[in-house]
Amino acid sequence: MDGEFRRRYGPWALVAGGSQGIGAALAGEMAARGLDLVLVARGAEALAWRAAGIRADFGVEVRTVSLDLADPDAAAALCRAAAGLEIGLLVLNAAAAFTGPFLRAGVGESLRILDTNCRTPLSLIHLLVPPMAARGRGGLLLMSSLAAFQGSPLVSVYGASKAFLLTLGEGLAEELAPHGVDVLVCVAGATRTPNYLAGKPGDRGRTAIEMEPAAVARIAVRALGRRPLAVAGAVNRAARLVLGRLLSRRAAVRLMHRSTRSLYAGGDK
After folding, report:
1. Which of 72, 183, 202, 219 ranks highest by number of CB atoms within 10 Å?
2. CA 28, CA 22: separation in Å to the nearest integer?
3. How far apart are CA 28 and CA 213, in angstroms?
4. How many CB atoms lie within 10 A of CB 5?
5. Is 158 a catalytic residue?
6. For residues 233 and 212, is the Cβ–Cβ distance under 8 A?
7. Are 47 and 64 in contact (CB under 8 A)?
8. What are phi and psi of 184, to 5 degrees?
């Protein structure tokens, strides 16, 4: 247990998207530092399994909320479920995505991405961060993506939603620092989460750029309170340098298109 971490960000952390992947790894990192947890995701079974593992491994209290963050009332319902708990750390990791040509996605699918990735996270920030500022301590962690730094064909709406979180987090980091609330945007690249692996063609083996969720989570938690932006992994930091500084913006978009097209075979045919 890390007493200073719990004092600064405890006693409770709320992790949206905490049942698997990076969110589950983040929950483990926080539990190891002594925080009690509210885990939120759609799948009740996966939530229960992750909660049981954390309780057994770390002895902290874990509550679960099975909820679709695309629902219009999701933020308010989640706050009702967490009523009476002092949430000192808000982790916004849940995400919806569509990989493929924009013309193949219906408007409902695109709006679901915005609801899950932007609207509900923004509502949760409005509801849960002001009490942190009033107490003079707390933290906000937003998970973003390399797709946020430029237009990203074949994941265009997802990339745009992650760009929203990136710029929102950077702005809030400056605004909330005088109130004692630390804000971090953690940018991940290709990460071997269940959703990522499910969307990857079966004949595509592991690549050098892929990271494990636990590695991303460690980087994020260690960066919290130290800087407003952390790009997970040396390869991803190099990619950001190439895309953002060495190439023109148009060339960067074209490179992202080729990269996504090669990863998801047949994505734009």
Report:
1. 183
2. 10
3. 11
4. 21
5. yes
6. no
7. yes
8. -130, 135
Q: What is the pLDDT of residues 85-118, one digit of tens each?
A: 999 999 999 999 999 999 999 999 999 999 999 9
> Can you give the residue ranges of every domain in the chain?
3-263
Which one, of 82, 15, 9, lies nearest residue 51 by Cα? 15
For the chain, the distance separating the N- and C-terminal CA atoms, rounded to the nearest angstrom, is: 51
Q: Are 211 and 192 in contact (CB under 8 A)?
A: yes
* Element holding 37 (H helix, E strand): strand 36-41
Structure tokens given for 93: 């990791």
8 A C-beta contact, residue 203 and residue 264: no
Across the chain, the runs of DSSP E, i.e. the strands, are 12-16, 36-41, 62-66, 87-92, 138-145, 181-188, 229-231
d(CA 182, CA 63): 24
Cα 186-191-192 angle, rounded to 5 deg: 145
pLDDT at 267 over 50: no
Long-range own/partner contacts, residues 204-209 (CB < 8 A, 24 or more apart)? 204/263, 204/265, 208/235, 209/233, 209/235, 209/236, 209/239
Other C-beta atoms lying within 10 Å of the C-beta of residue 19:
25
CATH class of 3-263: alpha beta
